[in-house]
């Protein structure tokens, strides 16, 4: 997507780039060693504080949908995000 955007900007601006695209060889932070099933670890090991029906703040498990979102959005950095969010 970034490559397409840059190519469009080059074309529309009639620019002459000095080198070719290098984004194909760049790895996104959190992408190294990513496992699509890693959300299960987040769901099992991390808690979040939530309000009970009586109004008390109690620890609860991270919802599996939230764990999946963190895992897909942050990759191998998802555990760090979960620690901050705890």
Automatic annotation (TrEMBL):
What are its E.C. numbers? 1.1.5.3
Tell me the GO molecular function terms.
glycerol-3-phosphate dehydrogenase (quinone) activity
Q: Where is the Alpha-glycerophosphate oxidase C-terminal domain?
A: 21-84
Origin, by domain of life?
Eukaryota
* GO biological process: one example: glycerol-3-phosphate metabolic process
Q: Recite the UniProt keywords alphabetically.
A: FAD, Flavoprotein, Oxidoreductase
One of the record's GO cellular component terms: mitochondrion
Pfam short name (any one): DAO_C
Note the InterPro entries from the entry: DAO_C (IPR031656), G3P_DH_FAD-dep (IPR000447)
Q: What name does the UniProt record give this protein?
A: glycerol-3-phosphate dehydrogenase
Q: Which organism is it from?
A: Nymphaea colorata
């Amino acid at each position: 997507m970034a490559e397409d955007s840059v190519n469009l900007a080059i074309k529309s601006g009639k620019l002459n780039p000095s080198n070719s695209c290098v984004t194909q060889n760049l790895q996104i932070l959190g992408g190294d060693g990513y496992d699509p099933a890693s959300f299960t670890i987040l769901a099992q090991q991390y808690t979040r504080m939530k309000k009970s029906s009586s109004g008390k703040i109690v620890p609860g498990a991270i919802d599996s949908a939230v764990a999946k979102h963190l895992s897909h959005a942050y990759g191998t950095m998802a555990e760090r995000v979960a620690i901050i969010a705890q």
